[in-house]
Amino acid sequence: MRRPLVAGNWKMNGTVTSVEALVTGLVSADSPSCELLVCPPSVFLAQVRAGLSVAGDEEKIGLGAQDVSQYESGAFTGENSADMLVEFGCRYVLIGHSERRQYHGESDDAVAAKVERCLAVGLRPIVCIGETLEQRRNGSVLTIIAQQLGALAQTVAREDWGRFDIAYEPVWAIGTGERATPEQAQEVHAMVRSTITDHGDSEDFTRILYGGSVNDDNAKALFEMADIDGALVGGASLNVQSFMSIAECAG
Ligand code: 13P
Fold first, then answer.
1. What's the topology of domain 5-250?
2. Which end of the chain is more exposed for a tag (fewer CB within 10 A), N or C?
Protein backbone atom coordinates (compact mmCIF):
# COMPACT_ATOMS: atom_id res chain seq x y z
CA MET A 1 0.00 0.00 0.00
CA ARG A 2 1.13 3.53 -0.72
CA ARG A 3 1.39 5.65 2.42
CA PRO A 4 0.10 9.17 1.64
CA LEU A 5 2.69 11.95 1.61
CA VAL A 6 2.00 15.61 2.31
CA ALA A 7 4.97 17.81 1.41
CA GLY A 8 5.43 21.53 1.99
CA ASN A 9 7.34 23.49 -0.63
CA TRP A 10 8.30 26.69 1.14
CA LYS A 11 9.72 28.15 -2.09
CA MET A 12 11.78 31.33 -1.52
CA ASN A 13 10.11 32.34 1.72
CA GLY A 14 11.20 32.73 5.32
CA THR A 15 13.64 34.36 7.69
CA VAL A 16 15.67 32.75 10.47
CA THR A 17 12.98 33.87 12.89
CA SER A 18 9.96 32.77 10.88
CA VAL A 19 11.56 29.41 10.07
CA GLU A 20 12.19 28.80 13.74
CA ALA A 21 8.55 29.55 14.54
CA LEU A 22 7.29 27.32 11.74
CA VAL A 23 9.46 24.34 12.75
CA THR A 24 8.53 24.75 16.41
CA GLY A 25 4.86 24.77 15.47
CA LEU A 26 5.19 21.69 13.26
CA VAL A 27 7.04 19.57 15.80
CA SER A 28 4.60 20.41 18.56
CA ALA A 29 1.52 19.55 16.48
CA ASP A 30 -0.11 16.11 16.68
CA SER A 31 1.23 13.61 14.16
CA PRO A 32 -1.10 12.66 11.34
CA SER A 33 -0.85 9.12 9.99
CA CYS A 34 0.41 10.27 6.58
CA GLU A 35 4.08 10.96 5.92
CA LEU A 36 5.09 14.61 6.30
CA LEU A 37 7.87 16.46 4.51
CA VAL A 38 9.13 20.04 4.45
CA CYS A 39 11.28 21.53 1.69
CA PRO A 40 12.81 24.81 2.88
CA PRO A 41 15.20 27.00 0.87
CA SER A 42 18.65 25.36 0.98
CA VAL A 43 20.17 28.02 3.28
CA PHE A 44 17.70 26.92 5.96
CA LEU A 45 18.27 23.15 5.65
CA ALA A 46 20.68 22.96 8.58
CA GLN A 47 18.44 25.09 10.77
CA VAL A 48 15.35 23.05 9.98
CA ARG A 49 17.21 19.79 10.49
CA ALA A 50 18.40 20.98 13.89
CA GLY A 51 14.87 22.05 14.82
CA LEU A 52 13.44 18.68 13.86
CA SER A 53 16.18 16.71 15.62
CA VAL A 54 15.97 18.68 18.88
CA ALA A 55 12.43 17.42 19.10
CA GLY A 56 13.59 13.90 18.13
CA ASP A 57 11.19 14.36 15.27
CA GLU A 58 13.28 13.58 12.21
CA GLU A 59 11.16 10.51 11.65
CA LYS A 60 7.90 12.40 12.05
CA ILE A 61 8.78 15.12 9.54
CA GLY A 62 11.21 14.51 6.71
CA LEU A 63 13.52 17.08 5.18
CA GLY A 64 13.76 17.79 1.47
CA ALA A 65 15.42 20.30 -0.83
CA GLN A 66 13.80 22.28 -3.65
CA ASP A 67 16.35 21.51 -6.36
CA VAL A 68 19.64 19.69 -6.98
CA SER A 69 22.45 19.82 -9.51
CA GLN A 70 22.58 17.17 -12.21
CA TYR A 71 26.38 17.11 -11.73
CA GLU A 72 28.42 15.36 -9.10
CA SER A 73 30.70 18.24 -8.06
CA GLY A 74 32.87 21.00 -9.49
CA ALA A 75 32.55 24.42 -11.10
CA PHE A 76 28.78 24.92 -10.95
CA THR A 77 28.36 28.18 -9.09
CA GLY A 78 25.22 28.46 -7.01
CA GLU A 79 24.33 24.76 -7.19
CA ASN A 80 24.00 22.09 -4.50
CA SER A 81 25.00 18.50 -5.21
CA ALA A 82 22.95 15.43 -4.32
CA ASP A 83 25.75 14.32 -1.95
CA MET A 84 25.56 17.65 -0.11
CA LEU A 85 21.83 17.32 0.35
CA VAL A 86 22.24 13.82 1.76
CA GLU A 87 24.94 15.09 4.12
CA PHE A 88 22.56 17.79 5.33
CA GLY A 89 19.92 15.20 6.21
CA CYS A 90 17.65 15.42 3.16
CA ARG A 91 15.67 12.33 2.29
CA TYR A 92 13.86 13.95 -0.62
CA VAL A 93 14.35 16.60 -3.29
CA LEU A 94 11.89 18.32 -5.61
CA ILE A 95 12.98 18.09 -9.22
CA GLY A 96 11.60 19.92 -12.26
CA HIS A 97 9.20 22.23 -10.43
CA SER A 98 7.42 24.37 -13.04
CA GLU A 99 9.09 27.48 -11.60
CA ARG A 100 12.49 25.89 -12.38
CA ARG A 101 11.31 24.88 -15.83
CA GLN A 102 9.84 28.32 -16.50
CA TYR A 103 12.42 30.69 -15.00
CA HIS A 104 15.57 28.57 -15.31
CA GLY A 105 14.91 26.82 -18.61
CA GLU A 106 15.05 23.36 -17.06
CA SER A 107 14.38 20.76 -19.75
CA ASP A 108 12.89 17.28 -19.46
CA ASP A 109 16.37 15.87 -20.14
CA ALA A 110 17.94 17.92 -17.32
CA VAL A 111 15.16 16.70 -15.01
CA ALA A 112 15.92 13.09 -15.96
CA ALA A 113 19.67 13.64 -15.38
CA LYS A 114 18.93 15.07 -11.92
CA VAL A 115 16.76 12.07 -11.08
CA GLU A 116 19.59 9.71 -12.06
CA ARG A 117 22.09 11.62 -9.90
CA CYS A 118 19.79 11.44 -6.87
CA LEU A 119 19.09 7.74 -7.30
CA ALA A 120 22.86 7.14 -7.39
CA VAL A 121 23.20 8.53 -3.86
CA GLY A 122 19.93 7.30 -2.34
CA LEU A 123 18.04 10.59 -2.37
CA ARG A 124 14.36 10.21 -3.27
CA PRO A 125 13.18 12.63 -5.98
CA ILE A 126 9.71 14.09 -6.25
CA VAL A 127 9.46 14.79 -9.94
CA CYS A 128 7.12 17.66 -10.80
CA ILE A 129 5.12 17.63 -14.01
CA GLY A 130 2.20 19.65 -15.30
CA GLU A 131 0.74 21.62 -18.18
CA THR A 132 0.30 25.36 -18.74
CA LEU A 133 -3.08 27.03 -19.17
CA GLU A 134 -2.50 27.31 -22.90
CA GLN A 135 -1.73 23.60 -23.15
CA ARG A 136 -4.89 22.76 -21.21
CA ARG A 137 -6.96 25.02 -23.44
CA ASN A 138 -5.66 23.45 -26.62
CA GLY A 139 -6.33 19.95 -25.37
CA SER A 140 -2.74 18.74 -25.13
CA VAL A 141 -2.62 17.93 -21.40
CA LEU A 142 -2.03 14.19 -21.71
CA THR A 143 0.48 14.68 -24.54
CA ILE A 144 2.54 17.08 -22.41
CA ILE A 145 2.44 14.77 -19.41
CA ALA A 146 3.50 11.83 -21.60
CA GLN A 147 6.39 13.91 -22.95
CA GLN A 148 7.55 14.91 -19.46
CA LEU A 149 7.42 11.29 -18.27
CA GLY A 150 8.97 10.04 -21.51
CA ALA A 151 12.34 11.60 -20.68
CA LEU A 152 12.34 9.64 -17.41
CA ALA A 153 11.41 6.43 -19.21
CA GLN A 154 14.50 6.80 -21.39
CA THR A 155 16.98 7.11 -18.54
CA VAL A 156 15.56 5.47 -15.42
CA ALA A 157 15.99 1.69 -15.17
CA ARG A 158 12.91 -0.48 -14.69
CA GLU A 159 13.92 -1.48 -11.15
CA ASP A 160 14.28 2.19 -10.16
CA TRP A 161 10.71 3.18 -11.02
CA GLY A 162 9.65 2.73 -7.40
CA ARG A 163 12.42 4.97 -6.07
CA PHE A 164 10.84 8.34 -6.78
CA ASP A 165 7.49 10.05 -6.40
CA ILE A 166 5.66 12.29 -8.84
CA ALA A 167 3.82 15.56 -8.26
CA TYR A 168 1.23 16.65 -10.80
CA GLU A 169 1.05 20.43 -10.60
CA PRO A 170 -0.94 22.17 -13.33
CA VAL A 171 0.94 25.44 -13.83
CA TRP A 172 -2.29 27.45 -14.02
CA ALA A 173 -3.28 26.25 -10.53
CA ILE A 174 -0.06 27.25 -8.75
CA GLY A 175 -0.43 30.20 -6.42
CA THR A 176 -3.57 31.33 -8.24
CA GLY A 177 -6.22 30.01 -5.86
CA GLU A 178 -7.59 28.11 -8.85
CA ARG A 179 -7.08 24.40 -8.33
CA ALA A 180 -7.89 21.57 -10.70
CA THR A 181 -11.16 19.87 -9.80
CA PRO A 182 -10.66 16.46 -8.18
CA GLU A 183 -11.91 14.88 -11.43
CA GLN A 184 -9.48 16.88 -13.60
CA ALA A 185 -6.61 15.88 -11.33
CA GLN A 186 -7.72 12.24 -11.21
CA GLU A 187 -7.77 12.02 -15.01
CA VAL A 188 -4.08 12.97 -15.17
CA HIS A 189 -3.13 10.90 -12.12
CA ALA A 190 -4.71 7.79 -13.66
CA MET A 191 -2.66 8.32 -16.82
CA VAL A 192 0.52 8.79 -14.75
CA ARG A 193 -0.29 5.61 -12.82
CA SER A 194 -0.61 3.58 -15.99
CA THR A 195 2.73 4.98 -17.24
CA ILE A 196 4.35 3.89 -13.98
CA THR A 197 2.84 0.44 -14.38
CA ASP A 198 4.17 0.22 -17.94
CA HIS A 199 7.71 1.23 -17.04
CA GLY A 200 8.28 -0.08 -13.55
CA ASP A 201 8.05 -3.38 -11.75
CA SER A 202 5.47 -2.20 -9.24
CA GLU A 203 3.11 0.75 -9.11
CA ASP A 204 2.92 0.47 -5.34
CA PHE A 205 6.05 2.38 -4.43
CA THR A 206 5.51 5.54 -6.45
CA ARG A 207 3.15 8.07 -4.97
CA ILE A 208 1.45 10.64 -7.17
CA LEU A 209 0.89 13.92 -5.34
CA TYR A 210 -1.34 16.74 -6.49
CA GLY A 211 -0.12 20.32 -6.19
CA GLY A 212 -1.63 23.72 -6.98
CA SER A 213 -3.62 25.84 -4.52
CA VAL A 214 -4.24 22.93 -2.12
CA ASN A 215 -5.70 24.16 1.15
CA ASP A 216 -7.62 22.80 4.12
CA ASP A 217 -10.94 23.40 2.34
CA ASN A 218 -10.24 21.49 -0.86
CA ALA A 219 -7.77 18.79 0.29
CA LYS A 220 -10.32 16.21 1.40
CA ALA A 221 -12.12 15.98 -1.95
CA LEU A 222 -8.78 15.65 -3.76
CA PHE A 223 -7.57 12.86 -1.47
CA GLU A 224 -10.78 10.92 -2.07
CA MET A 225 -9.69 10.30 -5.66
CA ALA A 226 -8.28 6.82 -6.28
CA ASP A 227 -4.92 7.91 -7.67
CA ILE A 228 -4.16 10.99 -5.53
CA ASP A 229 -1.68 9.84 -2.91
CA GLY A 230 -0.99 13.14 -1.18
CA ALA A 231 -0.17 16.77 -1.90
CA LEU A 232 2.67 19.13 -2.67
CA VAL A 233 1.61 22.29 -0.89
CA GLY A 234 3.00 25.78 -1.50
CA GLY A 235 1.43 28.78 0.22
CA ALA A 236 -0.60 26.82 2.77
CA SER A 237 2.54 24.98 3.98
CA LEU A 238 3.82 28.21 5.53
CA ASN A 239 1.04 28.10 8.07
CA VAL A 240 1.24 25.32 10.68
CA GLN A 241 -2.52 25.03 11.15
CA SER A 242 -3.33 24.87 7.43
CA PHE A 243 -0.53 22.42 6.66
CA MET A 244 -1.47 20.08 9.49
CA SER A 245 -5.17 20.26 8.56
CA ILE A 246 -4.30 19.21 5.00
CA ALA A 247 -2.20 16.37 6.42
CA GLU A 248 -5.14 15.25 8.60
CA CYS A 249 -7.30 14.96 5.47
CA ALA A 250 -4.69 12.67 3.88
CA GLY A 251 -5.03 10.26 6.80
P1 13P B 1 0.54 26.73 -4.09
O2 13P B 1 0.05 25.67 -3.14
O3 13P B 1 0.96 27.99 -3.41
O4 13P B 1 -0.39 26.93 -5.23
O5 13P B 1 1.90 26.14 -4.74
C6 13P B 1 1.91 24.88 -5.28
C7 13P B 1 3.30 24.49 -5.59
O8 13P B 1 3.90 25.01 -6.52
C9 13P B 1 3.95 23.50 -4.72
O10 13P B 1 5.14 23.07 -5.28
1. TIM Barrel (3.20.20)
2. N
